[in-house]
Design goal:
Elements: E1 5-13, E2 18-25, E3 28-33, H1 35-39, E4 47-50, E5 55-58, E6 60-65, H2 67-74, E7 77-78, H3 85-98, E8 104-109, H4 111-114, H5 122-126, E9 134-138, E10 143-146, H6 148-153, H7 161-164, E11 168-170, E12 176-181, H8 184-192, H9 198-209, E13 213-221, H10 223-234, E14 241-247, H11 256-259, E15 268-276, H12 306-318, E16 322-327, H13 330-347, E17 352-355, H14 361-370, E18 373-376, H15 380-383, H16 387-391, H17 393-396, H18 402-407, E19 412-414, H19 425-434, H20 453-459, H21 462-467, E20 484-487, H22 492-498, E21 503-508, E22 511-513, H23 518-521
Parallel strand pairs: 1-4, 1-5, 6-13, 7-8, 8-9, 13-14, 14-15, 15-16, 16-17, 17-18, 18-19
Antiparallel strand pairs: 1-2, 2-3, 5-20, 9-10, 10-12, 11-12, 20-21, 21-22
Helix pairs in contact: 2-9, 13-14
């Protein structure tokens, strides 16, 4: 752990109040307050760091992302900036020429923004690559389009009509058009999963540290990802804290040794499991109580049967793992709340609903009774600027209703869901406080749903620590872990406006983490 160090000469936001100085010793906050008060607690030889007016915050926490997927995404075919079908075809042609062997896997395809709502089809991909599988994933991660080779390798067209219903797009003649939804993605997954490079995971975690993130929770962790992270932890190579949530429906295959602590204390832990109750707004698979406004023939999908989820949740509880359920549509949020109710009584805020996209009054009444932690992605407020078309003007009022949920006393927790949205927590902080992006776009621009700077910071700080069952994270009060960031900003509002460019130092356990450079931080991912 680090030596005693006192930061003074600026402002310190502890997660609940402001102070003038903070003292860290042996990886723990031992004093915080005025400079005079803190100096009285400083041992001989304490290093004094003059902030020069800069701001200190608790290290940021991303409570829901995907380390394995982000590591692969950063080194794969990036489709986030695609603008039009011709641009997509050009990028696919260039990538396949530069990578002449193996499957072609693209990620981040925003059909609504990038392709004006028009999905590419199997024949579009076959015109470019027809000698090996191609799978291009929607930005949400809940849909994809595949070429003939991929569809054939996955046996899509040999499956029964019952298996295909709701999972595969079709032409007017009933032939698969290449678009795959939800469970169908599992059929092509073996084609797209390349060996996981441990070095790429270390680089990815360092990349996240450059934003000021000191703890991340990786969701839906595969056995391969778990083994890779455990190995890095044992070698002392994790630059930041990692908390793992395993795949819920695979929890029966988990063994005790998989859950045992490993490596530096507090750096790595398996803490929970994650299951799914629906899909996403983008591909219209989020489960709604009423049909989609722009596709009234459907209201989304219920993913994974209640019986299977209930059995897996009970098994996870027996293993001491906290439950997390993905739920975006209002019908799915209500479903998730009912499934989690027994576990909220046992583990409180460690029982979580992920995303919580649509919460009209009927759903609020259920949430007010059950009260799990609500893990949201403020960046979706900007990314889903097309949402009013999906839901209609009246219903979209209850999308990403952060102020309403906060005022009702719910524990709201911040995250990115990267790589399915940008990893930058500062983008999320701005979206939570400003609602509209720089072009005036928003999924729900209602200014009444904006949070204060301090409330937004707590989403990625003390609130997230509570949801992880570790209140010593996300805070700089006495006894907290010495995870902090130094920002080249005078106050929290200025820091949020400046974003990641304001991050100057990231500290974990009282030791400075050397993040990647600003140029890479601004690059893909």
């Amino acid at each position: 752990m680090g030596e005693a160090r006192l930061w003074t000469g600026g402002r310190v936001f502890t997660g609940g109040r402001y102070a003038d100085a903070v003292l860290v010793d042996q990886g723990t906050v031992v004093a915080v307050g005025s400079e005079a008060e803190v100096r009285r607690s400083a041992p001989t030889g304490t290093e004094v760091v003059r902030l020069g007016g800069r701001l200190v915050l608790p290290g940021l926490i991303d409570a829901h992302l995907h380390v394995e997927d982000l590591a692969r995404f950063r080194e794969g075919l990036d489709l986030t900036e695609v603008r039009g079908l011709d641009d997509l075809i050009r990028r696919l042609r260039e990538w396949s020429a530069a990578h002449p062997t193996g499957p072609v896997v693209g990620v981040g395809l925003d059909v609504d923004r990038g392709l004006h709502g028009r999905w590419p089809l199997r024949e579009d991909l076959d015109r470019v690559v027809n000698d090996r599988p191609v799978v291009l994933y929607h930005a949400s991660g809940h849909a994809a389009v595949a070429n003939d080779r991929a569809l054939a390798a996955a046996g899509v067209e040999s499956r029964s009509a019952t298996e295909l219903r709701g999972r595969v797009g079709t032409t007017a003649g009933g032939r698969a058009n290449g678009i795959l939804y939800e469970e169908a993605l599992r059929w092509v997954a073996p084609l797209t999963e390349t060996p996981l490079d441990p070095e790429a995971m270390v680089r990815t975690l360092g990349f996240l540290a450059s934003f000021g993130l000191t703890t991340v929770a990786s969701m839906n962790v595969s056995p391969e990802e778990l083994a890779g992270l455990r190995s890095l932890a044992a070698e002392g190579r994790l630059p930041i804290r990692v908390r793992c949530y395993l795949r819920l429906l695979s929890i029966g295959d988990v063994r005790g040794p998989d859950l045992a602590p490993v490596g530096r204390p507090g750096r790595f832990a398996v803490v929970g499991t994650k299951g799914f109750t629906d899909g996403a707004f983008g591909p219209r698979t989020a489960w709604l109580s009423e049909p989609y406004a722009d596709a009234p023939e459907g209201s989304g999908l219920a993913v994974e049967p209640d019986e299977a989820l209930s059995r897996a949740l009970a098994t996870a509880s027996d293993l001491g793992l906290a439950p997390a359920l993905h739920a975006i549509g209002d019908r799915a949020v209500e479903r998730a709340a009912h499934l989690l109710a027994p576990y909220v009584r046992r583990v409180g805020a460690c029982a979580r609903i992920e995303h919580v996209g649509l919460t009209p009054p009927s759903v609020l009444s259920v949430l007010n009774t059950v009260r799990p932690a609500l893990v949201v992605q403020p960046g979706f407020v900007w990314s889903d600027s097309w949402l009013s078309d999906r839901l209609g003007a009246d219903r979209v009022r209850w999308a990403y209703a952060f102020r309403t949920l906060t005022d009702l006393g719910h524990l709201l927790v911040g995250s990115s869901d990267t790589p399915y949205d940008p990893p930058d927590p500062w983008r999320g902080l701005r979206a939570a406080t400003e609602r509209r992006d720089e072009l005036g776009r928003s999924a729900n621009p209602d200014p009444r749903e904006a949070l204060t700077f301090e409330e937004a910071a707590c989403l990625y700080g003390s609130n997230a620590g509570k949801a992880l069952g570790e209140p010593s994270l996300g805070s700089l009060e006495v006894g907290s872990k010495a995870d902090l960031i130094v920002l080249d900003a005078r106050n929290l509002g200025e820091a949020i406006r400046l974003g990641a460019t304001a991050v100057r130092e990231t500290w974990v356990d009282g030791v400075r983490v050397s993040p990647v450079g600003e140029a890479e931080r601004g690059a893909r991912g």
